[in-house]
Amino acid sequence: TINLGGGSALLPLPIDALSLEEEIQIIKLLQSKGANIQELNTVRQAMSQLKNGGLARIAKATTIIGLILSDVIGDPLEFIASGPTFYSGNKNRQTLNIFNKYDLMNRIPAQFLQHLKQYENTNDDQNISSIKQIYNIIVGSNRIALEAAAHLCHQSLNYIPFIMTTCLQGEAREVGRRIVELITTKPSQLIYNDNIACLFSDKSTFDAFQTLRKEHKRYCLLLGGETTVVMKNNAGKGGRCQELAVSAALTIDNNQEDISILLLAAGSDGIDGPTDAAGAFAFNGMITNEDDIKRAHISLDTHDIYTYLSEINDGANLLKSGHTSTNVMDIIIVLVDNKE
């Protein structure tokens, strides 16, 4: 089998206690509350006959090989396509906890809640490993993509590549702001804290970044992962990568001439939200006049950022690559030219 991004959504087969429409509505509710991909896929595992080792369980073959394209932070096999060939235990209690966390218990079908409670301690797959040989191999991931980008940068551009993290998470607009603030703050004034930690794999990577800035004026920062957007009522059209980019553009000080920044935030699948764009760019001078700044803030607040980006600069600040037929999460590329 080939397990890849999109498998969680495209391989449903809900359990008898749920209809497909109910499953879709539950996932939409969780997404609107800002649930991360691990939480979404935990719930999907509890709703499906095929996920969480289900495909391996019902397959006639006794030897199963899963070729994995990871679209989940940290490459956990249980969450990639919700683990059709990897069993990781009963998910019913975790699912109930997630519903409680987002105050959704009264919006979940009663029959499904009853099922979760009734079979909370069931372990249908306890003997699967003694019956079948299952091999799961990761053949594509965000780390592999960033390393390829770093190699290309080193060969083709006059910038020093630096991979900051493959585990980027957080509210998209906050991440965009923090990336620019990190770059524009003098190394001597930077302190490794919670606001900065989300941008790095660990403290040692932050220390290496500090050394990079002291030794090089031109560098290419590479980040990967998956940010989130907490939706509000009457949301417009946009995506997390576009929100990250516009937030970064608004944070860039256009009067600071000693540093040049070009940022691209894009989904590796070529799709950012329900739009035809993979993501968007941010750079010095992108948003300058007061009217555009005001419109940008309103578009972020109403999650209508695609409309805004389509209307300024003839839509040139959007990246439209088309579907790439793969998905290893989002990639953020930042070219920095320090002219000091």
TrEMBL record:
Q: Which InterPro entries match?
A: GK-like_C_sf (IPR037035), MOFRL (IPR007835), MOFRL_assoc_dom (IPR025286), MOFRL_protein (IPR039760)
Where the record annotates domain MOFRL, the positions are: 220-330
Q: Name one GO molecular function term.
A: glycerate kinase activity
Q: Which residues form the MOFRL-associated domain?
A: 5-117
Q: Name one GO cellular component term.
A: cytoplasm
Superkingdom as given in the UniProt entry: Eukaryota
Q: Which family does it belong to?
A: Belongs to the glycerate kinase type-2 family.
Q: What is this protein called?
A: Glycerate kinase
User: Which organism does this sequence originate in?
Assistant: Rotaria sordida
